[in-house]
Amino acid sequence: MDKKEKRSPLRSPSFQDSIFVGLCSAGLLAYSLYHHYFDRNTSEWKTSPYLFPTLIAVFGLLLTVSLIADGLRECRAGGEEKKAGGRKNFVGVLVLIAAALAYYFLLPLIHFIPATLLFLAFLFIYLGERTWWKIVLLTVIATGLIYVLFGIALHVRLP
Fold first, then answer.
1. In contact, 36 and 28? CB cutoff 8 Å
2. Are 139 and 121 spatial neighbours (Cβ–Cβ below 8 Å)?
3. Burial of 103 (0-12, 13-18, 19+ CB in 10 A)
4. Could you read off the pLDDT of 98-133 as tens digits, one per residue?
């Protein structure tokens, strides 16, 4: 009789990712709440510079719950589910980090809209999209939505 081998949740990559994302999100949430309430910040929440980090932290905590559920599902399956590319793609991670750093350094030089268009176009090409009209359409729509949502509707000062 083959006994299904039960894996520890801590050995599941999804569970490990959930711990990392959860700790980062909790830290960001604590940081933003602390600074909003205890700094000399007299602005209300809708204009607070700590609103955006708080929202990111909340979405990170929701992602944590999803990753925990995924990790527990993997453990219940007994390791039968193999994820594609079991090894992490470190070269891909390094390329994305380099792209993010280039975007960070380009922002003050060429400003938000051109830097974001270049960044998104590079990411779409790197991730495998080869149809030029889709790349142009997606980068223009995404950049426009970000600009309208944050720059116009929420009055966030974009670089």
1. no
2. yes
3. middle
4. 999 999 999 889 988 999 999 999 999 998 888 999
Between CA 133 and CA 157 the distance in angstroms is: 30
Q: Which tokens is 25 given?
A: 């999100």
Tens of pLDDT along 54-112?
A: 888 888 888 888 888 888 887 777 655 455 554 557 787 888 889 999 999 998 899 88
**Taking the CA atoms of the chain, what radius of gyration do you get in angstroms?**
20
Looking at this protein, which amino acid is placed at residue 10?
A: L
State the DSSP H helix or E strand holding residue 145, giving kind and residue range, or none if neither: helix 132-146
Confirm if 151 and 158 have CB atoms less than 8 A apart.
yes
- Residue among 92, 116, 93 at smallest CA distance from 104: 116
Is there a contact between 31 and 88 (Cβ–Cβ < 8 Å)? no
Closest CA to 36 of 53, 59, 13, 24: 53
For residues 54 and 47, the answer to whether their CB atoms sit within 8 Å is no
Q: How far apart are CA 40 and CA 55, in angstroms?
A: 21
Stated pTM of the model: 0.53
Handedness of CA 39, 40, 42, 47 (dihedral sign): negative
Q: What are phi and psi of 133, to 5 degrees?
A: -70, -30
